[in-house]
């Protein structure tokens, strides 16, 4: 992964967060992606979200697979831990990292190829296990590194740059996550920072697997007339259903909302997700209703965005697997390797 250090410039009066850090403290290297790539807008939203939450970069682990999307972790939180894994295998590494260090905040950055093709099985199991990770899919509908072939998220009828039409059905990562029993499923657009930043903040604080599918146009191979993942198409067909804001515990903030119904979702740490319903009748806690809603709008070729499903009370990976609250690096050797007798006793229960 290429990495070019970004120069830091300080000046008097820079805005700082609760830790005394500036936005620049949450940045990474200079991007080597194409100018105008939607992925860089997602990076900017991640920087803003972490900064606003006041999270320590050293408490974060960034994980990715292979693809243009998987370069993103190099461009934010230079002070965080990171692991760039094999194609499609990011969820396995994230699972191991969380099992060993549940005190770290895990962020997995993937793409529509990395998660919906070669890594589809791994994506599915991360969701069903409710792995404690913010799982962002940077979705552009093409394989950018191999010259723009259709990916599994390309819509039927969508045209490639050279004019060929896609005839395969698309995999919708949001509908898939909801169907698999996921606890948090959202969609946004890289060009909608006002919506994306609160969703990232909500996903980071969600107790479980927070899947955010972000439509992120590829300016080189998939930003032309006929593409359903282009800037023009997405802006024309956006349908915002639920907007979210994150309210930290014990902190008074001002939230700007238009007239309309809203719902508060209380999380275990005392924080609150405040959901404004752009569609007043939409219920983001109704799994079957969310799937019906997505299908109805898919038939109208609309890109439904917002926090589309949430259940903060589902058991997480840590609850189910009984992972150690104390980092494995802090355990004594005798605890980690109790000896042959203990192993023999354990194996009796497996016969």
Question: How would you describe this structure to a colleague?
Answer:
- With 351 residues, the chain is an alpha/beta fold.
- The chain has one domain: 3-Layer(aba) Sandwich (Rossmann fold).
- 28% of the residues lie in helices and 20% in strands.
- It has 11 helices and 12 strands.
- It has helices at residues 38-53, 90-100, 112-116, 120-128, 173-179, 193-205, 231-237, 287-298, 317-321, 333-336, 340-348, and strands at residues 60-64, 81-84, 105-111, 133-139, 142-143, 149-150, 184-189, 209-215, 238-247, 262-266, 272-277, 303-310.
- Helix 6 links the parallel strand 7 (184-189) and strand 8 (209-215).
- Helix 1 crosses helix 6 (193-205) and helix 2 packs parallel to helix 4 (120-128).
- The longest helix is centred in the N-terminal third of the chain and has 16 residues, at 38-53.
- The radius of gyration is 21 Å and the shape is globular.
- The N and C termini lie far apart (46 Å).
- 44% of the residues are buried.
């Amino acid at each position: 992964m290429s990495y070019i250090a970004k120069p830091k410039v300080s000046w008097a009066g820079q805005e700082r967060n609760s830790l005394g850090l500036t936005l620049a403290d949450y940045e990474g290297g200079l991007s080597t992606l194409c100018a105008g790539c939607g992925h860089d807008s997602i990076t900017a939203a991640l920087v803003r979200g972490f900064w606003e939450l006041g999270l320590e970069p050293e408490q974060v682990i960034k994980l990715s697979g292979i693809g243009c999307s998987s370069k993103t972790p190099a461009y934010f939180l230079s002070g965080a831990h990171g692991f760039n894994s094999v194609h499609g295998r990011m969820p396995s590494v994230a699972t191991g990292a969380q099992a060993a260090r549940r005190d770290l905040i895990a962020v997995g950055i993937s793409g529509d190829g990395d998660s919906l093709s070669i890594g589809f099985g791994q994506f599915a199991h991360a969701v069903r296990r409710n792995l404690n990770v913010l799982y962002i899919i940077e979705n552009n509908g093409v394989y950018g590194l191999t010259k723009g072939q259709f990916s599994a998220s390309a819509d039927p009828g969508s045209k490639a740059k050279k004019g060929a039409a896609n005839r395969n059905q698309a995999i919708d990562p949001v509908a898939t996550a909801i169907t698999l029993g996921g606890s948090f499923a959202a969609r946004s657009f890289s060009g909608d920072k006002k919506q994306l930043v609160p969703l990232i903040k909500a996903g980071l604080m969600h107790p479980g697997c927070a899947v955010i599918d972000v439509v992120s146009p590829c300016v080189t191979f998939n930003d032309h007339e006929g593409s359903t993942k282009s800037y023009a198409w997405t802006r024309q067909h956006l349908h915002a259903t639920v907007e979210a804001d994150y309210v930290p515990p014990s902190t008074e903030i001002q939230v700007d909302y238009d007239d309309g119904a809203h719902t508060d979702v209380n999380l275990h740490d005392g924080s609150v997700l405040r959901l404004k319903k752009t569609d007043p009748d939409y219920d983001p806690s109704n799994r079957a209703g969310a799937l019906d809603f997505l299908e109805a709008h898919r038939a109208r070729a609309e890109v439904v965005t917002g926090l589309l499903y949430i259940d903060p009370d589902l058991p997480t990976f840590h609850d189910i697997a009984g992972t150690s609250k104390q980092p494995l690096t802090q355990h004594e050797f005798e605890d980690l390797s109790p000896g042959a007798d203990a192993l023999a006793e354990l194996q009796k229960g497996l016969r």
